[in-house]
Design goal:
single chain, 593 residues, alpha+beta, extended, DDE_SF_endonuclease_dom, RNaseH_sf, DDE-1 domain-containing protein, DNA binding
Length: 593
């Protein structure tokens, strides 16, 4: 954005707020103050006050805006609605949207190149509507989460209403697993202006500890269940933590079926057993496979516990712990971790984790905030008190909301509706296809060697394949030929070694000396195609184009990109073969043994 420098001696423009001007005009209209006194008190020129009191020259200074006040109002509503719908606009999107609107209505703005507003226009537009709009960093959510619709949520609440019938708030438990990391996160610092890479010396790592939390709709937080990533568990890893915390370990560092059963038996069942067995109880959680166990379900039936699962991909809307508890917990955890790392070096050891974790929970429990967050989470997810509208209001429907939000009293209102719908359908709501996983084959690569893709293979030997080297055969250029496929081998006896037995394009097996004048010298068989027959030479020679073994296959052969050409005599041919033809000029040869 350009920075304008005011000319020396230029006319002074408004350097007061609208509220100050309104207050001065009100006092003048009620005759509580004179114009000269108002000028001294509010530092607004006398002529300006006179014009405002008499409603003269009320238009703004400078050239009128490109869009009318009504158009900008509709644009702001559409931007807010699109953001709520999950497709927020960037600055470039808004500029393109305005360009599309101007073109659609036949407007030609000389200040814009091809009717496309510049970045300065966008900054002034934000400044005019700063009470409503602001630039923020967006959080990405998966498309599977965005696919949650009104129908699935309504169906979920229909079942939930029956499942929670007669269950009191202190017997409705929500459980979820979260990750406690060894990273305090980024922070804003004060540094020299123009510094491109501000750094802070602070040890952090990607290690983490998994913790299972559970809380009731009445605000009671059950003891956590900590899972370390380790094969063994040591006593020092369990000392100094929150009261009643259980500790365990797993190879992955996350919950599995065994740990889930142990968590249920050691923490959930003892809590439920405090209440009469005939009273209905409810336990709500996500449908993660590691959070479901047949043994747990059987015990739920035995103790009159209703095991309720949330809809898939809906934890950001329907999980009380996700909605209102984990974020403040992570904030206090990062603050506590930062205080620890300012005094200690390296990653936080498992022996210190329980104490630091306890300090974070103690911070969260100040003024009973943990209990309040739990109650707020159950309310925000519509579980207790039961209210499906608490979730449905967070799932917008564009077509209905667009017509309700944007005024259509004028022709431009209808144009804005159409512009938003077209822009979203063309630029935002495109159908996407799931990527198919192609079948893959394990490659056997010799130690120290590298490979390339099949399409880029040359005559370099990536694998141990039957292929003659150009050092033992003469290399000349030639054009390839094709042959119809037949699946058979014709063996030739010594009497059949004549030129009449071969044709151009035949596939043959050549027996050649390999690794001449070396300790590995021997005779090997090679597949090749006859390119030409030189009947004038003595003895008669055949011009062959050799094939190489295809990557990852024993019986599939192909011609290398760099042709391997050689000459042999008739007596060096042992067989005529008729291979099967595959795609991309690949050939399958039968056994010649």
């Amino acid at each position: 954005m350009a920075k304008y420098v005011k000319k020396v001696g230029g006319r002074p423009y408004q350097n007061y707020s609208e509220e100050t001007l309104k207050k001065a005009v009100m006092e003048l209209k009620t005759k509580k103050i004179t114009f000269r006194d108002a000028e001294k008190k509010y530092r607004i020129s006398k002529s300006t006050l006179q014009r405002k009191v008499n409603n003269k020259n009320t238009m703004k200074v400078g050239r009128p805006n490109t869009l009318s006040e009504k158009d900008e109002e509709n644009l702001v509503k559409g931007i807010c609605l699109s953001s709520k719908w999950g497709f927020p606009f960037t600055s470039m999107d808004i500029r393109l949207l305005v360009q599309q609107f101007l073109n659609k209505n036949g407007f030609k703005e000389k200040r814009f190149t091809n009717n496309l507003p510049g970045y300065e226009w966008f900054k002034h537009f934000l400044d005019r509507h700063k009470s409503i709009l602001s630039e923020r960093l967006a959080e990405n959510i998966k498309r599977s989460r965005a696919e949650i619709n009104h129908e699935s949520i309504k169906k979920y609440f229909e079942h939930l209403k029956n499942s929670l019938a007669g269950v009191s708030a202190n017997l409705i438990i929500n459980y979820d697993e979260t990750n406690i990391t060894d990273d305090p996160g980024k922070a804003k610092i004060i540094t020299r202006r123009g510094c491109k890479h501000p750094e802070r010396i602070l040890d952090s790592s990607k290690s983490s500890v998994s913790v299972m939390f559970a809380g009731t709709a009445s605000g009671y937080l059950l003891p956590p269940y900590v899972v370390y990533k380790a094969e063994n568990l040591y006593d020092s890893w369990t000392e100094g933590g929150p009261k009643g915390t259980r500790y365990n370990r797993s190879k992955s560092g996350w919950f599995d079926g065994v740990l889930f059963e142990d968590w249920f038996n050691k923490l959930i069942l003892p809590y439920y057993k405090k209440f009469p067995a005939d009273i209905p109880k409810a336990m709500i959680g996500d449908n993660l496979a590691s959070h479901i166990s047949l043994a747990v379900i059987e015990k739920c039936k035995e103790y009159n516990i209703r095991f309720i699962l949330l809809p898939p991909n809906s934890t950001h809307l329907c999980q009380p712990l996700d909605v209102a508890f984990f974020r403040p917990l992570k904030i206090h955890w990062r603050k506590t971790l930062l205080a620890y790392k300012n005094k200690h070096r390296g990653s936080i050891p498992k022996t210190e984790f329980p104490r630091v974790f306890k300090n974070a929970l103690d911070r969260l429990n100040i003024d009973n905030c943990a209990s309040k967050n739990l109650i707020s989470g159950f309310k925000a997810t519509g579980i207790y008190p039961l209210d499906e509208n608490m979730v449905l209001c967070k799932i917008p429907t564009l077509s209905r909301h667009l017509n309700e939000s944007i005024s259509t009293s004028e022709d431009t209102g209808t144009s804005w509706c159409e512009t938003f719908e077209n822009f979203l359908s063309e630029s935002r709501v495109k159908e996407t296809s799931n990527l198919r996983k192609n079948l893959r084959k394990k490659l056997s690569v010799q130690p120290g060697k590298s490979i390339t893709s099949k399409a880029d293979l040359s005559d370099e030997e990536d694998f141990d394949i039957n292929q003659p080297s150009t050092s033992s055969l003469n290399a000349v250029s030639n054009t390839p030929s094709t042959l119809k496929s037949r699946k058979m081998v014709k063996s030739l006896s010594t009497q059949e070694f004549s030129v009449s037995g071969f044709c151009k394009g035949d596939f043959v097996v050549a027996r050649l000396l390999y690794n001449v004048n070396t300790s590995k010298e021997g005779i090997k068989k090679f597949y090749a195609q006859i390119e030409d027959i030189d009947e004038n030479s003595d003895p008669i020679q055949l011009k062959l184009k050799y094939l190489k073994q295809s990557v990852g296959s024993r019986d599939i052969y192909t011609f290398p990109l760099i042709e391997n050409i050689g000459y042999v005599t008739v007596d060096q041919i042992s067989d005529i073969v008729y291979p099967g033809v595959f795609k991309r000029n690949r050939y399958k040869f039968p056994s010649t043994d």
